[in-house]
Please model this.
Amino acid sequence: MLGARAPRWALPARRALNWARPQPARVPPGGRRLGSSAGRSLAAAGLQPQLDKFGAVTVHLAQLHAPDSLDQVTFQRWLQESIKQWRAEGRIAVWLHIPILQSKFIATAALQGFTFHHAESDSSTLTLWLGEGHSRLPGYATHQLGVAGAALDVDTGKVLVVQDKNKTTNAWKFPGGLSDPGEDIGNTAVREVFEETGIKSEFKSLLSVRQQHRHPGAFGISDMYIICRLQPSSFNISFCQQECLRCEWMDLEELAKTKDTTPITSSVAKLLLYGYREGFDKIDITMREFPAVYTGLFYKLYHRELPDTFKNMTEL
Ligand SMILES: NC(=O)C1=CN([C@@H]2O[C@H](COP(=O)(O)OP(=O)(O)OC[C@H]3O[C@@H](n4cnc5c(N)ncnc54)[C@H](O)[C@@H]3O)[C@@H](O)[C@H]2O)C=CC1
Ligand SMILES: [Mg+2]
Model:
């Protein structure tokens, strides 16, 4: 993704643009200077475009003091003039955040070439690429994440399985579901298993990752489906009647052999049986937590266990 963009050191980190001030040397054919009355009134109305470190401009229409009194013609004129000015200044793109109640401005922006980048429940984000060639702006979410939990009772060799209510074929599978925003993989597995079966458990490791593109259940985007190994701590099933048709503790070897399951579940059942017999260290992808470069945040790193001699290989 490298291209002819301005060097990062040349770009100030997020600062307000002085866009409303008239540009002394720049007089468009109509004789009106950029940073015109439309620009000045928009500044007075609260808009403060920001420049990011990549050289793109961000505008939040939520900053408008009285959005209802801004008409589309004024906004269109301001946007047109601003785009001209930003192009002249070498800006690479514009990010335009529009609250849902100001959606009338979406059409105005679209007429200037803006397209949707993404939408959240209460706002949409549009972009306009101003740089050379095709847009190098990063896209929005490309995958959804589903997580299932294989809760194995190591004392009995039985594993918790369900059959979904809303499926055409009733195959046995591990309980699971979609990850909530900001939720750790292991927490999704534990939460979904509890919600669907009433069984409490603890996250132990990752077992497998499945990637499926153009997933119909993911609105046509890609779907990542992760199966975790869980240690159950309760055993009385009370399954969710809305989501599940059946739920039971099934002998792991029986699950590994049955045809009455999905290829993913069958493969992971065989993997889990191998770990159960030969040691979970043969199959587990375990997790370690580290502080992120972003202040106060942490991330989780998942990988196979390393011997201590390799783990502590730091130069003195
Ligand atoms: N074991 C396997 O082979 C299978 C794996 N998966 C994976 O599991 C994950 C999703 O798990 P789920 O149990 O489906 O999620 P989930 O446990 O979060 O439940 C989703 C709920 O939303 C409902 N729902 C889904 N689409 C809907 C729609 N368009 N309108 C109304 N209701 C809707 C479903 O009926 C279900 O009640 C995905 O990653 C998927 O790829 C799903 C099925 C089988
Ligand atoms: Mg589910």
Remarks:
- The first strand starts at residue 15 and ends at 16.
- Confidence is low (pLDDT under 50) at residues 1-14, 18-34.
- Residues 146, 166, 173, 176-178, 192, 217, 223, 225, 243, 262, 264-265 surround NAI (ligand 1) (CB under 6 Å).
